[in-house]
Amino acid sequence: MVEPAERPATRRPGRIGRVARALTFGLTDTEAAPVALAGFLLRGGIVLLALPGVVLPSVIGIAGVTGVDAIAIDGRPTPWLLTLIAVAVAATFVWLAIASLVGSLVDIWLIRMASEPRPDKTPRRLELPPGSLLVQLAAIRMTCLLPLAAALAWAASRIFNATYAELTTPTNLTSPLPLRVVLAAGDAVAVVAVVWLATETIAAIAIRREVLAGRGFWRSIGGAAAQIVRRPISTFVTVAVSYAASAAAIGLAMVVTSIAFDWCRIAARNQDPIAIKLGIGDFATVRDFRPVAFSLAAFAFALAWAAALALAAVTSAWRSAAFTNEVTDSLSAERESAGEPNVSELGLSGPTAERSGD
Fold this sequence. Notes:
Blueprint: H1 15-28, H2 32-50, H3 59-66, H4 79-115, H5 131-144, H6 146-168, H7 177-184, H8 186-213, H9 217-230, H10 232-269, E1 275-278, E2 285-288, H11 290-337
Antiparallel strand pairs: 1-2
Helix pairs in contact: 1-11, 2-4, 2-11, 4-5, 4-8, 4-11, 5-8, 5-9, 6-7, 6-8, 8-9, 8-11, 9-10, 10-11
């Protein structure tokens, strides 16, 4: 009696293999980096990169702009300030909605790139997905932001009180105002950071489960939460490595651009001539070197910004691929445990496998 040959088991890559594969994707895929950079900048990355070049107004400057309209004599916000905050919240909501729609398109393209290897380096054809899928992914991300909105609402009063205290009676004048506010309201800032990281993780997993398997709105969100419970160590490693790398890269970029921006400010404000003697003997002349110094500082600032954008692009593509690999491995494990045949190419939302450019 001849026993049937057993099907060779497909071996899925381990945690280190998935992270390494994502890193290779971020470093080598020249098409993914610009797409990832666009998504990063649209979702608020441009604010982080621009912060080193922003000169914060002084207390006197803020008072000169707002006058007595912002804070009442008892320290409470006036109706004018509350109206201004409401308008800012509404504008932020509109921006988040637009960023979620366009960001969902970026997510779909990055998921396609990471799940469809391109060994021959042929150009990809990234077509527009159905509008219903974009709306569904945006709704998933906006729904996952609701706990963050609640955390921000809870922390707003603590942060406002800390800001008001530092503006009226500063603890010290050597540290920047944002740093003093963060230290004074450390518990509120920590809660917001933890909630943001948790909601961002659930949203990233839910979006990929919807794109790769078409599980539906609530099943994708519920499946993301269940995946975190089933695979806590693997999910924690993916989140820790990818976000730590992004934070380190963005932090380094902000430090370098801040130093280069300070060079530009010093070169622009220097009132003392920088005398440089040029020539030989009687043909020598003395020139002011300040324009050259400012040009060199501006060139250094431009290089710092270019390096910051490159780092943001690579780390964003790496982070997206790391989550895609994590979800792909989880879906494969779920199929194996359910006795379903494992597919080598996961299609986009829907039962029929689709591929970019088909």
